[in-house]
Amino acid sequence: VSAAVVVIGVGNELRGDDAAGLLTVRAVDGTALPSAVQIVESDGEAARLLGQWSGADTAIVVDAVRTGAPPGTVLRVDVESDTALPSRWSGAGGTHALGIADAVALGRAVGAMPDRLVVIGIEVASTETGSPPGPAVRQAVGAAARMVEEEVAACVSPRPAG
Amino acid sequence: VTHRTPASRTLKVDALPRVEGEGAMYVEIRDGAVHDVQLRIYEPPRFFEGFLRGRSYTEPPDITARICGICPVAYQMSACLAIEDACGVTVDERITALRRLIYCGEWIESHALHVYLLHAPDFLGYESAVAMAEDHRAEVQRGLALKKAGNDLIEVVGGRAIHPVNVRVGGFYRAPTRGELAPIAEQLRGARDAALETVAWVAGFEFPDFDHAHELVALREPGGRYPMLGGRLVSDRGLDIAPSEFLVHVVEEHVERSTALHAHLIERGNYLVGPLARYSLNFDRLAPLARDAARSAGLGEVCRNPFRSIIVRAVEIVQACDEALSIIAEYAPPNPPAIPAPARAGTGADWSEAPRGTLWHRYQLDTSGTILDAKIVPPTSQNQATIEHDLFHLVEHLIDADDDELRRRCEQAIRNYDPCISCATHFLDMRVERS
Prior knowledge:
The structure holds two protein chains of two kinds.
Chain A: E1 5-10, H1 20-27, E2 37-42, H2 46-53, E3 58-65, E4 74-78, H3 100-110, E5 116-123, H4 135-156
Parallel strand pairs in A: 1-2, 1-3, 3-5
Antiparallel strand pairs in A: 4-5
Chain B: E1 9-14, E2 23-30, E3 33-41, H1 48-52, H2 60-65, H3 72-87, H4 93-124, H5 129-135, H6 137-158, E4 167-168, E5 171-172, H7 178-203, E6 215-220, E7 232-235, E8 240-241, H8 246-249, E9 250-254, E10 261-265, E11 271-272, H9 275-281, H10 288-296, H11 309-329, E12 346-354, E13 357-365, E14 371-377, H12 379-397, H13 403-415, H14 421-424, E15 429-434
Parallel strand pairs in B: 2-15, 6-11
Antiparallel strand pairs in B: 1-15, 2-3, 4-5, 6-7, 7-8, 9-10, 12-13, 13-14
């Protein structure tokens, strides 16, 4: 990517609440974003994520997570050099069992990381194949989208120090 | 230090890593001899054939693509060809060229993924691609760039990198313009060089002596091309059949340990589909560049060592990049992008060469084009019995190895076949029992 900021919604629309990342980036008000911001959707496969975020100054990845918090809880992780990602992000539901955590490890090993990576996670209830997203996730999408917009605004015009 | 292993033991791997889907392996050794080896596929059955019944004949390319996130194009191509056979239509050369182009993209991305991220760590002694990447950064970067070139090719022709949306019975919804293919040609020239470097890299790995005698089965296309779309199914032992004859020669049976069916040739037994078979039966059809790369890697015209399949996959990446570039150089958009394929009552069957081997589809339609019956035989279910056979002999060979070494070599042997468990269920954990 050549965009300064890339927003990546990760998920599978055919697995219930797993669609949370996709629904969130679709709810982001694209018209209000500067042109240096690119919004993409992803299945979260590690090699594809590297292609989607390498070269960006900042990547904001939105994905469904399972941390034990109440469903619909939105959380934010700034992935500095050694921050461990929640284990749910190791992608057990993926086709290759290589998820965001593996993408980060692989990206670090081959030098394909953005300068900064922020992960916004939405706690899921059910990721049953074939079911629609549940009420808690649908309700959380708006708040997650606003968090993405604020994150983008902060990257494009950095907050004054202090 | 003398390392002793018990005469009887059981080795179990309950969730095989670096394979597509969920499967397990079970090895039982009794009194110093292999008693039982099972490849267990426990991914839930998928019932695709069942829910195709009652759908329109225009839907299988999109529905069956969902069987696999790695080889959706294979499903789309076999589905289109089989339905077109039922409708009694044949697409023109330009549509065929565009179909081969998108299929080249799938071979490149699927093989690059397997060679670099799934199989190479076995040869270089790493537990994962991530661990390997820390020491072999440039190689993994090359693999990722190759995979990306394949995905980008699928996207430019298919409209989307996974589960393309531009494929239909009769051809495509929209043909890309020459201008739209120009940037991908540039990327493919780089990918072809990277593919040649890949062949040289994997040729330097160490390979155990382990030739097998399985019957090699692959497509042979009329017109002199390396097999991809249709043609006859041939073997090194005289099999030579049309798509409609497949189930006359092949039986599938359910085995209790697996949600995938085991296939074998009637009165002939196990057989092997996939890169080794395809290469060995079609060496004469390789592009000169791919043939030269194979020779310089020390491959003969026939390869029977499944561990060397990693070299064959690398050669096929060269082949796919080279063919894709030839297609783009001569490309003229098909106009119209799809031929009419009106429904009629009847049965149609056809096949294509998925990255993992021959994928056969058959559809029975009524006069309005409603699907009365669907049958799909993917490559992994055809290879499953052969994989177990290899494992049995490998374990015999390694009977004194400790459990870790045995597990490592068995997993590597399974990955020789790049099994796509998601496709085959309708699968990996490993267990060795020494009692």
